[in-house]
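dude i think i finally got it to work??
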Amino acid sequence: MPFFSVRALLKSGRLWPDVLDAVGLASLSLILFANASFSSFFVFVSEIIFNYVLVQWMLRFEGRQARLIATVIIVVNIAILAYFKYLTFFVEDVFGLFVGGVPPDWPKSFPLPVFKTIPPGVSFYTFQMVAFVVDSLTARKKKPINFLDYLNFVAFFPQIVAGPIERRISLFPQIQKFRFKFTWANFVQGFRWLSLGAFMKFVLGDNIAPFINVELAANAWGVWFHAFLFTLRIYFDFAGYSFMALGIAYFLGVKLTINFLAPYTSQSINEFWRRWHITLSTWFRDYVFVPLMGSRKQLAPFFLFLTFTLSGFWHGAAWNFILWGAYHGALLLALRYLGRPFQKTFGGLGNRSQTISWALTFGSVVLGCLFFMDTNITRLGVKLQTLLTPGSYSWSNFLGTFTAFSLNEGVALSVVLGLAALALSLEFMAVWQKRFEYELLLSPWLSPCLLGLTVLLAANTPSQFIYFEF
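look at this
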């Protein structure tokens, strides 16, 4: 890039002020965002300016006045998110459900424009902005914030579209001291994460995606199998993006939060949520569950269920996402109240107990992905009915699930699933050896192999990142 060429030339002559690195990062982030959606760019910049001005104002006060300003900022941010993401859902699904249909002239009669596409990253950067407000309100030392630093914190391009959702305490100090650090150590670490992420996304996630049949509903074996494929795809797709974001950030000298920790090795649904989409889970814990519960710990189960239902709604403006969130909330409550009898029953089985726990947890996650993958509620109901129908588990249905693929398709899918199994087995091995979950996948000798496999086996038609839709 010309920017980095000019920077290198001027820096060699000591004519490059350090602040220009922050200016360059902000410019790069904003240009990339504008290219993604020019109309959404103006909304995004307006939110940044609004939040910055009011946060600066908030920092001048204490107590009730500061909390009032913080409330105004949060309400405005959530309102913007709701307008872009949930307006159509509330009118067409909620309002239409209770009054028997939407107005015949909808959306033409609505006084404001109705958007059918969601601005890129709005769910993620809104939550990051909200967290920044709360963390600034509760900070011990309330110092004025530099606008350029705030802009780079919110708009940091590797993670703006699909996370991780960064906190002020982890990312903001790095942004305040930001300088482009093109060191060998950063390059090596970034290359390893980027290779792993690209392999997961383009080889595993994208090659699994074409084989997923969302419409199949009358064959129980088929419903389970395609939900299983989706379970693999969403992990490799989303973790792949997160790891590539980590790698790119390392190239720039910034360390992002690891958003996944081998979630499919979990032996309980509670452990699963400590490993899956970590920054979102902790966001809902700290900014929704804990404030809602307060000192009313006797109501913790209710607020836990409500929090997970809301987290499902965050994922998408559709009933299936609400059901998905409620389903996982119910699973956590079931584990809390029914888990002890299970542990007493199987506790003496040693390793077999761990295997059973893992199988039940993974099976629960696969069933949950059935809710996540199908936005057609009617078809989703048929699928659930099929799973509860013993006759649907016939031998002919079992054979039909796999004979639906041609020979070439079967071979291709088998190769991809074999590579997926190898990647997951390395995660299992690292967890079993009590190492960092991705230590083996980030091995110096393996990273070039993963990059080579990505070049050779990447899908011909890459699919969009799943979480770009949210």
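The radius of gyration is 24 Å.
im so relieved honestly
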